[in-house]
Design brief:
By secondary structure, the protein is mostly beta strands. It is built from three helices and 36 strands.
């Protein structure tokens, strides 16, 4: 073979390897571009308003942690295989209200467990299972009044693989994490699992264990199967972070569907949440005003609730995913930032509400990209209501409402497509009057 032809083939192979590496390991270019554009806008807006963009809590420093969460989707592996190679894809934003670049570890995103040294349990009526050491545990069978208790070491990582598990309890959690570094609840491939509590929860000493899955430490839900949760109180409660990176999760609760102290993150999977009385996703930390956040960068989320669809005391940041919300109030947080995603909201109060819940951030609703469709009920309702600033730099916003926009602070409008009640406009009319371009209830024009 001629030397020139060898050089050409070598260059082609090198180019292909480089392209594969970038696809498998780099943060999605489009998301990164959006992050760069939206990040600069949010940072400058935050500086003017006296707010400082803060980082999220760092990713867990396990031996499989990674600084990126866009990972290749390897050939599907059975959950009974020894290779844990199936991973979800999350396009995170590093320059937004939150720095989510280290939020998900590689193991968080891996959808199947390494079962080479797993311990298997088949549940029986009235017999609790207690896990005291790091490892992988496979749970299967059908039973009543069984609690799987994780009470391991501070550095232990425990993975519970649900493989056809069905448990109904009267008054206690089905999964109760007392202590661990982090716990994975992974659904086996093609498995169907159901966990429910039908009566009034009883406390564990001073701990009010009020959810079907109750965790004092970090909790990751993923897998290749389905999990259905039904509760007379909360569906899933976490005292640290809750991350959902795959699987099909259905939660039906009387109170909050999914709640966490530090934050809730969704990168992949299909999640359906209903609540008869309270919020779909609720994040609140009474001790740290920077915590209590919600971050979404992928997956499908469907929420039908009586109160708020997404409620975070500090930040709600959406970088991707498909989100559908039917609620009294669609999204509420001190700083609501939308950089990407497809979001549909049907609400009877406010579609999006920026409300001062946290002293760590300046109240702001910020839309930099994505598609947003808001339909409001009749009466004193607002499509987008910010008790502080309103910033729109991009995206497509459709609002059907008597009061499309209401803000109390400064309006910054530099881009995006806005359609109000079916008519495209480049003006943002403030319902009650604010500062900047919308002062006195007049139109806010593009800067």
């Amino acid at each position: 073979m001629k030397r020139n032809e060898l050089k050409k083939r070598g260059a082609l192979i090198l180019a292909l390897l480089l392209a594969f590496t970038l696809t498998a390991c780099a943060v999605d270019a489009n998301a990164q571009s959006t992050a760069s554009q939206s990040g600069s806008t949010s940072q400058s807006t935050a500086s003017r308003s006296g707010s400082v963009s803060q980082s999220t809590p760092a990713a867990q420093s396990d031996d499989t942690s990674t600084n990126t969460s866009t990972t290749q989707s390897a050939a599907a592996q059975s959950s009974t295989s020894q290779s844990a190679a199936v991973q979800s894809t999350a396009a995170v934003t590093a320059g937004g209200a939150m720095d989510a670049s280290e939020l998900f570890s590689k193991r968080d995103l891996t959808q199947s467990a390494d079962l080479s040294e797993a311990v298997a349990y088949s549940v029986s009526d009235g017999k609790d299972i207690t896990v005291t050491a790091e490892g992988v545990y496979v749970l299967s069978g059908s039973a009543k009044n069984v609690t799987v208790v994780v009470d391991a070491g501070d550095e232990d990582k425990v993975q519970l693989v649900l493989d056809g598990l069905s448990v109904t309890n009267d008054d206690s959690p089905v999964i109760y994490v007392k202590n661990a570094d982090k716990v994975f609840v992974t659904t086996a491939e093609a498995s169907e699992n159901s966990l429910s509590v039908t009566g009034t929860f009883t406390a564990d000493g001073s701990t009010n264990t009020d959810a079907v899955i109750f965790s004092r430490d970090d909790l990751i839900l993923n897998g290749l199967g389905s999990l259905t949760i039904s509760s007379t109180d909360n569906g899933i409660s976490g005292k640290d972070k809750i991350k959902i990176t795959g699987g099909v999760l259905t939660v039906s609760a009387v109170d909050h569907g999914i709640e966490a102290n530090d934050g809730i993150a969704l990168s992949d999977g299909t999640v359906t949440v209903t609540s008869r009385q309270k919020d779909g996703l609720h994040a609140e930390n009474e001790d740290d005003s920077r915590e209590g956040w919600i971050y979404i960068c992928g997956g499908t989320l469907n929420v039908t609730v009586a109160d708020d669809g997404l409620h975070a005391v500090s930040i709600v940041q959406i970088d991707g995913g498909s989100i559908s919300i039917t609620a009294a109030e669609g999204i509420e947080g001190t700083w609501v930032q939308i950089n990407d995603g497809d979001i549909t909201i049907s609400a009877s109060d406010d579609g999006i509400n920026g409300a001062r819940k946290s002293s760590a951030y300046t109240t702001c609703v910020e839309i930099n990209g994505g598609g947003l469709s808001i339909t409001m009920g009749q009466g004193d309702t607002d499509g987008i209501d910010s008790n502080g600033n309103l910033t729109i730099t991009g995206g497509t916003i459709r609002v059907n409402a008597q009061s499309p926009f209401d803000y109390d602070g400064t309006l910054t409008h530099t881009g995006g497509t806005i359609i109000v009640n079916g008519t495209e406009t480049d003006q943002i009319t403030n319902q009650f009057g604010g500062m900047g371009g919308g002062m006195g209830g007049g139109p806010g024009r593009r800067g």
